[in-house]
């Protein structure tokens, strides 16, 4: 699908539109509680998808790329809305700014939690079990070692590797969301 979109295949674009239009609309509506923002974001997302189709990559799923476009489009719309209100009133409504910031913070937190959960789920079974026991069940390395029949050093190694893996996910997330 991505290759066909990059080549400008309108029938594939139409198919993608029908598959994702409602999903994006409902996702944005759920986050903002604003039908106007949901519709505007959805429309602009598909306009951008068509305009920037040549920059699509095979490295990420189409779903991921479309929802990333939707998210950045929503952020742009919220910023424009805040700027418009600021110019009209000469002083932005702090409540509105805080509401928008809250929506964006909530979206970012949910997305980060999903990425972290996915990273934990993809850990090797023993590492995942050690990490879960350490960070979620608040067990000491000695307790984990005794429970699993491992040495304390092995448990510490698993925790170190798990944290390294999660740190990499966090760094990628921050790079994608700050720049």
Automatic annotation (TrEMBL):
Keyword set includes Transcription regulation: yes
Matches recorded under Pfam families: Sigma70_r2 (PF04542), Sigma70_r4_2 (PF08281)
Example GO BP: DNA-templated transcription initiation
Keyword tags: Sigma factor, Transcription, Transcription regulation
Residue intervals of the RNA polymerase sigma factor 70 region 4 type domain: 115-166
Top-level taxon of origin: Bacteria
RNA polymerase sigma-70 region domain ranges (all copies): 17-83
GO molecular function terms attached to this record: DNA binding; sigma factor activity
Classification via InterPro entries: RNA_pol_sigma-70-like (IPR039425), RNA_pol_sigma-70_dom (IPR014284), RNA_pol_sigma70_bacteroid (IPR014327), RNA_pol_sigma70_r2 (IPR007627), RNA_pol_sigma70_r4_t2 (IPR013249), RNA_pol_sigma_r2 (IPR013325), RNA_pol_sigma_r3/r4-like (IPR013324), WH-like_DNA-bd_sf (IPR036388)
Family: Belongs to the sigma-70 factor family. ECF subfamily.
Name this protein carries in UniProt: RNA polymerase sigma-70 factor
Species name: Chitinophaga silvisoli
Highest classification ranks of the organism: Bacteria, Pseudomonadati, Bacteroidota, Chitinophagia, Chitinophagales
